[in-house]
Amino acid sequence: MDAIKKDMKGIKNITGKIVVFFTAVLLLAACKENYMPKRTGYFRIDFPAERTFLRYEQPSCPFTFEYPSYGVLQKEAENQDELTNHPCWFNVAFPEYKGKIYLSYTAIDANNTLDKLVRDSYKLTFKHTVKADYIDETVIQGKNPGVSGIMYDVGGNAASGVQFYVTDSSRHFLRGSLYFFAPPNADSIAPAVAYFRKDVEHIIETLQWK
């Protein structure tokens, strides 16, 4: 009888050790994970559901156009030279989205020939080639007479995703660029560039020289 009890006790000890062993194995296995790096996520941006527009028209500037009602017209107040010498340089700002459409008008004359203005615009755009993956050029045409030019779509981690100029080739030249004041990460700002590009298109479509 004592022998049987002794054998039973030995079996229990062995069984206990086996249970402890397999429990330890299972715990060690559970601690191991196949780590998969997650893609970087970005905050969702809620854009205006409806596009409504206001008309820009100032006696001092020889053009009119429509701009989005959620935009704010502003000038670079700290730049006194610009305020004095370029009354028709201003921005359509989108404070909530940290973005701006810069607009600069220049009259074509002997000092500012059409060829010079086009070349200057080209140089300003292609300064972004350091960060850009590509720059696509598209011929653009407004709905009103004498409004045509080039739009540049700048891909990659460039500060400005859209640039353009329009002209009547004889008297008027308007240059514009869309900027966002955020780290120029193409993935994060792509939705904003796509959304506000349509506002740039609307400015061009509704532009009219006086």
Short description:
The chain is of the alpha+beta class and 210 residues long.
Give the strand order of the largest sheet, numbering strands 1, 2, ... along the chain.
Answer: 3-4-5-9-8-7-6
N-to-C series of helices and strands: HEEEHEEHEEEEHE
CATH architecture: 3-Layer(aba) Sandwich
Q: Report the major sheet.
A: 7 strands, antiparallel
CATH structural fold name: Protein Transport Mog1p, Chain A
Mean pLDDT: 84
Q: Helical amount among residues, as a percent range?
A: 25-40%
Q: Can you characterise this structure?
A:
This protein has 210 residues and is of the alpha+beta class. It has one domain (53-209): Protein Transport Mog1p, Chain A (3-Layer(aba) Sandwich), CATH 3.40.1000. It is built from 4 helices and 10 strands; from the N terminus they run H-E-E-E-H-E-E-H-E-E-E-E-H-E. The longest helix is centred in the N-terminal third of the chain and has 30 residues, at 2-31. Mean pLDDT is 84; it is low at 3-12.
